[in-house]
Design brief:
The protein is of the alpha+beta class. The chain is about 20% helix and about 15% strand.
Length: about 280
């Protein structure tokens, strides 16, 4: 009988471990390691643990299912959700985690102001901390995002996420409208050309099978944005460029920030989970 209980206990442990590492639907298991792409900001500086990341940017259908509303400027179930703030994305991660029976990754305090947030344009300043070992959804760190966009251990050293030719993998200001634009970036030309977002996964994937990590919508990361020489953060980092942005914004190494409460028709997200 003791032997039987031992066998059952062993099987149970194996089953639990298998469930813990079961890949979520529409996610990619990113094998950890050192950065392979020499163009990365983190080359020779960081080692990334295994994690899961969404194969696609979060769609409007997914957002609507969790949040019950759709803030996007360009409407369509399989278009990426946009016009979402960093705070909106943190809420989405927690609500989706709860909806799927996972432990929320974030602890959100709307009453306690984040005293490290000195951004005068941010009128919210929620205090957000993490449960580091939770299995719920979260935003990727900048390092995780860049590692995945560069193809992880399968990286071929491309300039953009999956290619050296931006038009093969990205929707950006020149190709996201009715006609291919040339010359200098002019907002009036983009408006006239009906530039906009496109259904996720419409372009070629990168080495890991991830789509739209260059272009379509800018993607929020967890990290605070620190300007060179600054001691206090100015908003949160976004990566990847978007449908109205330039080619250089689509390079995985490019980094920029936006106030955490900021929104725009080219601002979306991609989510991940601990492995």
């Amino acid at each position: 009988m003791k032997k039987l209980f031992s066998v059952i206990a062993t099987v149970t442990i194996v089953a639990v471990n298998a469930c813990a590492h079961k890949k979520p639907e529409h996610f990619v298991h990113v094998k950890g390691g050192a950065f392979k792409n020499k163009k990365s900001n983190y080359y020779g500086k960081a080692h990334i643990p295994d994690f899961y990341i969404g194969r696609y940017e979060v769609t409007q259908k997914e957002w609507q299912h969790v949040m019950g509303s759709n803030p996007s400027n360009f409407k369509g179930d399989f278009l990426p959700v946009e016009t979402v703030s960093w705070y909106d994305c943190i809420e989405y991660c927690n609500k989706r985690s709860i909806q799927e029976g996972l432990e929320p990754y974030y602890i959100i305090s709307r009453a306690g102001e984040d005293t490290d947030n000195r951004d005068e344009l941010d009128d919210m300043k929620w205090m957000v901390t993490i449960r580091a070992n939770a299995n719920g959804y979260r935003l990727p760190t900048e390092a995780e995002w860049e590692y995945a966009a560069n193809g992880g251990q399968l990286s071929k050293g491309f300039i953009y996420s999956g290619s050296n030719q931006v038009d093969e993998i990205a929707w950006y200001w020149k190709n996201s409208g009715k006609e291919y634009l040339t010359g200098y970036w002019v907002w009036a030309a983009l408006e006239k050309n009906n530039n906009k977002t496109h259904p996720v996964g419409s372009k070629r994937a990168n080495e890991l099978g991830l789509y739209d990590m260059s272009g379509n919508v800018r993607e929020w990361c967890w990290d605070p944005y620190l300007l060179d020489g600054a001691n206090t953060p100015q908003g949160r980092i976004w990566k990847g460029g978007g449908w109205m942005g330039a080619e250089f914004c689509c390079e995985p190494s490019f980094r920029a920030g936006h106030q955490a409460n900021g929104k725009g028709p080219d601002q979306g997200l991609r989510i991940c989970r601990n492995y």
